[in-house]
Amino acid sequence: MGTFTTGDGTEIFYKDWGTGRPVVFSHGWPLNADSWDGQARLVADNGFRAVAHDRRGHGRSGQPWQGNHMDQYADDLAELLDRLELTDAILVGHSTGGGEVARYIGRHGTSRVAKVVLLGAVPPLMLKTDANPEGAAREVFDGLRAGVAADRSQFYWDFSEAFFGFNRPGATVSEGLRRSFWMWSMQVGLKAAYDCIEQFSEQDFTEDLGRIDVPTLIAHGDDDQIVPIAAAAHKSAQLVKDATLKVYPGAPHGLVGEYEKAFNADLLDFIRS
Question: Is 82 labeled as catalytic in the residue annotation?
Answer without folding.
Answer: no
